[in-house]
């Protein structure tokens, strides 16, 4: 039986279930401390596996395309923050101040890796460049995201829990970068195992995110998250995320064409430059913000994450159909051997 189009994907349903569980049965006391420690271990394992998946051939093949990577990094860490900051007079009235902090946090996050690469492949874009660009965005985000948080969100609504930006970078490096590098160095020995068991290891990827979401929302619910978020603000958040995603998609498409990139490179720029990483954003938020504030700060990221998946899936299919239409006349015109 075909899956109804209006039904979200399984991971989104799992996210919603996790939020509901944290709202009804939030972890507190010793249980919350246990989940905090479990979350740290799960996130370390997640980035260890990401490092093991990244081949050096893909790095070498994609790293030479520096103009494309510069556009993607600029879109991720310059365009998005400027949009969030410049549109404050329009966006802030639609949401609460705490949710707007989450919107700005969303804007300073690195790009996704897996979904950006998957959509680039579906749309027949430049795959080596997508792998290199998306992975570089994740690694750069370990340093750039805390710097931008310190610059754009100094003590925003009391949400910032740590004053030392360098300390934040060090903690994020220890939790994310060190396992990532360790996994990549172990790739000659475990790369084959990771590739063979990719469907099973996907549960580690998603399970770690669900763990962080549960602990974050548990702490927020204990502090009265839902009583502080009116329903109109949640509806406004959907509008805000839609506006940001639309502007990002239009801007990256325009930049790619204005700078003369090929269609394959345009596809890579659009899918790598318009997306934000839930896998990186959730654990980073645990480091950068006070526990009781993380739940509200992550809401915009969760809404944007689902929205970007749905919109980019449609966009990737349109790019793929266009590629097929271009290839068909070329195939018909090609001489056939006897």
Automatic annotation (TrEMBL):
Q: Where are the transmembrane segments?
A: 39-56, 68-87, 99-122, 129-149, 169-186, 207-227, 233-256, 284-304
InterPro entries recorded: Na+/solute_symporter_sf (IPR038770), Put_Na-Bile_cotransptr (IPR016833)
One Pfam family recorded for the sequence = SBF_like
Q: What positions belong to coiled-coil segments?
A: none
Asked if Transmembrane is a keyword of the record, the answer is: yes
Q: Which UniProt keywords apply?
A: Membrane, Transmembrane, Transmembrane helix
Key word RNA-binding present:
no
What name has this protein been given in UniProt?
Answer: Sodium/bile acid cotransporter 7
């Amino acid at each position: 039986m075909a899956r109804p189009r209006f039904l979200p994907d399984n991971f989104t349903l799992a996210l919603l279930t996790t939020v509901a569980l944290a709202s009804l049965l939030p972890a507190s006391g010793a249980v919350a401390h246990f989940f905090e420690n479990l979350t740290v271990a799960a996130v370390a394992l997640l980035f260890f596996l990401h490092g093991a998946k990244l081949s050096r051939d893909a790095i070498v093949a994609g790293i030479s395309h520096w103009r494309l990577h510069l556009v993607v990094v600029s879109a991720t860490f310059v365009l998005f923050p400027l949009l969030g900051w410049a549109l404050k007079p329009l966006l802030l009235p639609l949401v609460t101040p705490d949710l707007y902090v989450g919107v700005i946090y969303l804007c300073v996050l690195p790009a996704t890796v897996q979904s950006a690469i998957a959509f680039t492949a579906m749309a027949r874009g430049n795959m080596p460049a997508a792998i290199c660009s998306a992975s570089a965005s994740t690694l750069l985000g370990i340093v750039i995201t805390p710097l931008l948080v310190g610059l754009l969100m100094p003590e925003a609504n009391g949400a910032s829990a740590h004053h030392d930006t360098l300390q934040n970078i060090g903690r994020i490096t220890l939790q994310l970068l060190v396992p990532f590098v360790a996994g990549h160095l172990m790739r000659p020995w475990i790369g084959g195992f990771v590739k063979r068991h990719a469907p099973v290891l996907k549960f580690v990827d998603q399970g770690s995110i669900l763990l962080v979401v549960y602990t974050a929302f548990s702490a927020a619910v204990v502090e009265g998250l839902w009583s502080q978020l009116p329903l109109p603000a949640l509806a406004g958040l959907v509008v805000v995320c839609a506006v940001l995603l639309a502007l990002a998609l239009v801007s990256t498409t325009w930049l790619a064409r204005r700078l003369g990139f090929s269609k394959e490179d345009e596809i890579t720029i659009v899918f790598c430059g318009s997306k934000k990483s839930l896998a990186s954003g959730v654990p980073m938020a645990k480091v950068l913000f006070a526990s009781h504030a993380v739940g509200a700060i992550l809401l915009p990221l969760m809404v944007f994450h689902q929205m970007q998946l749905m919109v980019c899936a449609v966009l990737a299919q349109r790019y793929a159909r266009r590629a097929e239409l271009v290839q068909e006349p070329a195939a018909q015109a090609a001489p056939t051997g006897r």
